[in-house]
Amino acid sequence: MHEYRTDMYEGMLAETVAFPGDGGELLSAYLARPLGPGPYPGVVLIHHLPGWDEYYREATRRFAYHGYLAICPDLYQREGHGTPEDVAAMVRGVGGVADDQVVADMAGAARYLRALPSHNGRVGVFGTCSGGRHAYLAACRTDDFDAAVDCWGGRVVMSEEELTEKQPVAPIDYTESLSAPLLGLFGAEDRSPTPEQVQQHEEELRRHGKEYEFHMYEGAGHGFFYHDRGAYRVEQAMDGWGKLFDFLGRHLA
């Protein structure tokens, strides 16, 4: 966690930027970075199904406060603009975003961070809900990330009936290719993923000899980090953030 001192200098820049995503298309993103020479590690944040919303801007600044170059791309941009809620509804209406597209967008975001002069050369990926699923996919299907954090990512384990043209392969089936250490944070009362699905995922990671750590929180369900929603669980969330920053500090510093 960030060690605060009353005599320290603090400064941060947060702004909307653009970077080349899938197919070279310019994608909007929210970037937050500490002011100073660095070098700083990087984190790509993958927003959840509710969209590129205020919570994810706050989370991006939180990472910057803790000493990271943090970028959160707008994965729904190609469907149009409007309020996060309206755009997310449009995306749900067309069956979501394609896994291949998201993976390419995340790789582009990682390249953007590595090109910044104050970057230290290491990049992690973080996501919650659908973003947790995408974070796992990105860490399995590219070698652009040095650490991955999946917070209650549903549909990592998928049945044949759940597969679609945009999501043709269950992320768990890519486990053998996982190229980065993985941290997973989950709620015992969640239904997507269920504790049973988390256990199945863990068994697959263990079978392939991957480096990972999973934490299951009693009394918490889906979205227990979200302080602006009824699902928020302060004790579990603060412990989870502590584990998250300890994990990233070990693998990205």
Provide a concise account of the structure shown:
This protein has one domain: 3-Layer(aba) Sandwich (Rossmann fold). 44% of the residues are buried.
Mean pLDDT equals 97
Percent of residues in helices comes to 25-40%
- End-to-end separation in angstroms reads 12 Å
Biggest beta-sheet profile:
8 strands, mixed
Number of helices: 6
Uncertain runs are: none
Rg over CA atoms, rounded to whole Å, is: 17 Å
Using the alpha-carbon principal axes, give the shape.
globular
Which fold name corresponds to the CATH topology? Rossmann fold
The CATH architecture term is 3-Layer(aba) Sandwich
Beta-strand fraction estimate: 15-25%
Strand order of the largest sheet: 1-2-4-3-5-6-7-8
Structural class label: alpha/beta
The ordered string of helix (H) and strand (E) elements is: EEEHEHHEHEEHEH
User: How many domains?
Assistant: 1
Number of DSSP strand runs: 8
Name the CATH superfamily classification: Alpha/Beta hydrolase fold, catalytic domain
| CATH class assignment | Alpha Beta
